Amino acid sequence: MSDPFLSQKDDIRRRLEGRYVGAVPHNQALNLRVVDYSPEHLSLALPYREDLVGNPETGVLHGGCITSLIDATCGGAVIMSLVAPRRIATLDLRIDYVRPALPHQEVICDAHCYKVTRHVAFVRATAHHGDAASPIATSSGTFVVFRDDKRQNDDEGESQ
Amino acid sequence: MRLRDAVTAVRETGDFTSLQEAIPYARFMGITAELVDGDIIGRMQYSDHLVGNASVPALHGGTLGALMESTAIFKLLWHGETTAVPKTINITVEYLRSARAEDVFARAVFTRHGRRVANVRVFAFQDDPERPVAVATAHFLLVQD
Fold first, then answer.
1. Minimal Cβ distance to A64: which of B70, B92, B94
2. Angle, alpha carbons A61-A66-A72 (nearest 5°)
3. For residues A74 and A141, is the Cβ–Cβ distance under 8 A?
4. B93 in contact with A at a CB cutoff of 8 Å?
5. In chain A, which residue's Cα lies nearest the Cα of B96?
6. Are the Cβ atoms of A54 and B92 closer than 8 angstroms?
7. Which residues of A touch B76 (CB under 8 A)?
8. Interface contact A145, partner B, CB < 8 A
């Protein structure tokens, strides 16, 4: 007998992988993978690849692709915490590199959307190599949540 | 070419091509820089894989952060005394407008360039430098050779 909660979880995973990772060209180009999720949380993995290296002398991934991973995971955590699908846009994102990343290892980002107000969502995230207690980077970001699907005006940005 | 040799070559010629070629991620992203009126202007050449929202279409926010961090590093390497790549301590990106599916440029300003730490602001724009699509504040640790 199938577990209804598990099948629902599988369904959410498929939707995340299809619409959030697969349908976003840059997330797809980075081969981002859904690791885990629950309401308000999302974990995505960025597989190690030679063409994403920032410094060939160390073999470590460039900070830029870690920024994209964190931005994508935080945005996904916001989507996981919204009761209805909404258009969102990153307002700001801060990333602290607390220790150097290691070469030849994938990077996992865990994001937690800890508060959603009517128009703004607040997210904290950490990036690590598999042990969340030993992060490479810690991050916090805010996102605008649009309450209608019309484009506001040119001054309201959209990055997701 | 090794990264350090590429940095030396860029300082001699003002041509950032060798630096882009030495950094795999810069090639993947189409990120390079050029000297315009004595200042470094970073550039991210548009490619379909940079898109974050295909329905608008708009560039992925992470790619703008990548361009701004890279531009700051290019300018620090251009002005630096060592060939060691500065380490990013932190970066804060503010997204101001949606970035269209076109090339993006970036200009970095040193708010303080100390011996150990550099404080840098970066402005990313498309056609009008006065209307940035994103701005960043970043701190770098300057490492000795």
1. B70
2. 145
3. yes
4. yes
5. A157
6. no
7. none
8. no
ipTM of the complex: 0.95
- Tell me the C-alpha to C-alpha distance, in Å, between residue A87 and each of A54, A91, B130: 32, 13, 27
Interchain CB distance below 8 Å, B62 and A92: no
For residues A159 and B6, give the distance between their C-alpha atoms in angstroms, rounded to a whole number.
33
Residue in the structure block whose two tokens are 């994508």: A72
Q: Encode pLDDT of B33-60 as tens digits.
A: 999 999 999 999 999 999 999 998 999 9
Q: Note whether B65 contacts A67, CB cutoff 8 Å.
A: yes
Q: Is B45 on the interface with A (CB under 8 A)?
A: no
| pLDDT tens-digit map of A138-154 | 999 999 999 875 554 44
Question: What is the distance between the alpha carbons of residues A35 and A44, in angstroms, rounded to a whole number?
Answer: 5
**CB neighbour list of residue A134: distance below 8 Å, 6 or more residues apart:** A99, A128
| Cβ-proximal residues to B125 (8 Å cutoff; 6+ apart), any chain | B104, B105, B106, B107, B131, B132, B133
